[in-house]
Amino acid sequence: MSLLPLYEYPDPILRQKAEPVTKFDDDLRTFLSDMLETMYADHGAGLAAPQVGVSKRMIVIDAEQEEDENGNHQKGNPMALVNPQIVYKSEETIFFCEGCLSLPNQRADVERHQRIKVRYQDKNGVEHEIEAEDYLAVVLQHEIDHLDGILYIDHLSRLKRNMLLKKLEKARAEK
Ligand code: NI
After folding, report:
1. Radius of gyration of the chain (CA)
2. How many Å lie between the centroid of ligand 1 and the Cα of residue 44?
């Protein structure tokens, strides 16, 4: 297993529409394990393949992980979803304060569908469907957006987005 490099805003790979995965082999399974390892190491609730430089439709999430006393993230319910597709969205929405490993140390309230249904393939190519609500639904929508080149800041007003990007620039300059 190895840690993968993180691609940050404004890297153009984050704006590409990712390609479907067609080959389910050992390389794919190793890559998905590496994505999970990278997500935990960087304290993310989810990670999409374009964020580690691979423009393919794959995401990993763990909406149930816990932080131990040293600030390390412990596995809760790791999931790898290949070619995920949202097949149902509730009309009800919720606001949740989101962050993204590609926009480090920034957060903002984003409106999302409160309940969704997602069809996906697992690491062996077997098809599944998952129903999600609240936090899990938020994480899934955020990560699936990445596969279409969409970042959570795109859901903000222009004013809020510009403020956040200015803060990101400032934080980077101070590093
Ligand atoms: Ni993200």
Report:
1. 16
2. 8
| Residue 75 structure tokens | 């596995």
pLDDT digits (tens, 9 = 90+) for 55-107: 999 999 999 988 888 877 778 999 999 999 999 999 999 999 999 999 999 99
Report the 10 Å Cβ neighbour count for 156: 19
Ligand 1 center from residue 46 Cα (angstroms): 7
Q: From the CA of 79, how far away is ligand 1's center (Å)?
A: 16
pTM listed for this prediction: 0.96
Question: Across the strands, what pairs with 48?
Answer: 59
Pick the CATH number of 12-173 from 3.20.20.20, 3.90.226.10, 3.90.45.10, 3.40.630.10: 3.90.45.10
| Distance between Cα 122 and ligand 1 center (Å) | 21
Which one from 69, 91, 92, 143 is the annotated catalytic residue?
Answer: 143
Active site residue 127: no
